[in-house]
Design brief:
Blueprint (H helix, E strand, L loop, with lengths): L1 E4 L8 H12 L3 E4 L10 H6 L7 E4 L18 E5 L6 H8 L4 E4 L5 H6 L5 E3 L18 E4 L10 H13 L11 H9 L1 E6 L12 H7 L3 E4 L7
Parallel strand pairs: 1-2, 1-3, 3-4, 4-5, 5-6, 7-8, 8-9
Length: 228
């Protein structure tokens, strides 16, 4: 069985990379677009390069996902991932109409897709590949760990909370960029991983809750929360 991911393999990280690793463990052949493939390449030309016709085509949410021409006419089931459907929802709904399945990684958005006419919205919880977090520290030196974005107007509450925590507890440098390897190291060294959602979607727990639990840390989030 073959699954085609509509992206370049080098663009995979975090959650999409975890799905690829998990599918490969099941014996599924994973294929990607060539590095020089145009973002709007015709889907049949992409399929011509495959060793076998895929059973499923997935567009993961990456920085440079492909949106090939002819997706709406292909005879292969297609699915698109929406890790943050609360952001630019109206645009996401329009993109999703080209795919047979819209996979939503936050609860409560299926109705919006159905009202717009999409036949198959599917809610799927966030997940991580636990092997990324398989080396917890012998002694957790950080009281609180946090990694993520904090620079825009969406994160005023987040910055305020993190500054207060850093003034009172041992924390990592939450203001700098972290690679995914850095994320795993921070959370494996943390006793508690804290979460503060966006100001325009405060119930968001994102992928952080799965990363925290995979690292063996306590996960602490503000209420109200989409975790039930």
């Amino acid at each position: 069985m073959t699954i085609l991911f509509l992206c370049r393999e080098r663009d995979l990280q975090r959650e999409p990379l975890g799905y690829v690793r998990a599918l490969r463990k099941l014996g599924i052949q994973i294929e990607f677009a060539d590095d020089d493939c145009a973002l709007n390449e015709n889907i049949e030309r992409i399929l011509e390069r495959s060793a076998e016709r895929p059973a499923l085509i997935i567009q993961p949410e990456t920085d440079l996902p492909l949106l090939p021409q002819g997706l709406d006419k292909i005879d292969v089931p297609t699915a698109c991932f929406h890790f943050d459907p609360y952001a630019y929802l109206h645009r996401r709904i329009r993109w999703a109409m080209l795919f047979d399945y819209a996979v939503l990684f936050h609860p409560g958005f299926e109705d919006a897709f159905r009202r717009a006419g999409h036949p198959n919205p599917v809610t799927l919880p966030h997940a991580v590949d636990a092997e990324f977090f398989a080396s917890p520290a012998a002694e957790r030196l950080l009281d609180v760990g946090w990694v993520g974005r904090s620079g825009s107007w969406h994160y005023i509450t987040r910055r305020r909370v993190l500054k207060n925590l850093a003034a009172n507890f041992r924390m990592n440098d939450w203001s700098r960029f972290h690679s995914y390897e850095d994320v795993a190291q921070v959370y494996c060294n943390s006793k508690v991983v804290v979460n503060v959602g966006r100001d325009d979607y405060p119930g968001d727990v994102s992928l952080r809750f799965a990363e925290a639990m995979a690292a063996g840390a306590v996960f602490l989030t503000l209420l109200p929360s989409e975790i039930t």
